[in-house]
Design goal:
Helices cover 20% and strands 38% of the residues. By secondary structure, the protein is of the alpha+beta class. Strands 1, 2, 3, 4, 5 and 6 form a 6-stranded antiparallel beta sheet that branches. The radius of gyration is 12 Å and the shape is globular. The relative contact order is 0.26. This is DUF2187 domain-containing protein.
Length: 86
């Protein structure tokens, strides 16, 4: 497993707060988890992601370094700076 660092783009597995996998940027690393800002998520998870305010703490075991492909980007909702400012 690659070492995850602050600034990395990661794919996170669904968890208790979301029903589908999502992509995020790592903001802070803890001992066994990381604080992330969600960047791309499944549209069906819109309410959950908004309630999280586009941020979450995820286990390092539930993420891997990755970025969404162009095909995935078309199917997923991208988070804009305006959404984060709300």
């Amino acid at each position: 497993m690659a070492k995850i660092a602050v600034g990395d783009r990661v794919k996170c597995q669904k968890n208790g707060n979301t029903d589908y996998d999502f992509y995020a940027k790592v903001e802070k690393i803890y001992e066994n988890s990381a604080y992330v800002t969600i960047t791309h998520y499944d549209v069906r998870d819109d309410i959950n992601v908004v309630e999280l305010q586009y941020r979450a703490v995820i286990s390092l075991k539930k993420m891997k370094i990755a970025q969404p492909s162009d095909d995935e980007k078309e199917k997923m909702q991208a988070v804009s700076a305006a959404m984060l400012a709300e």
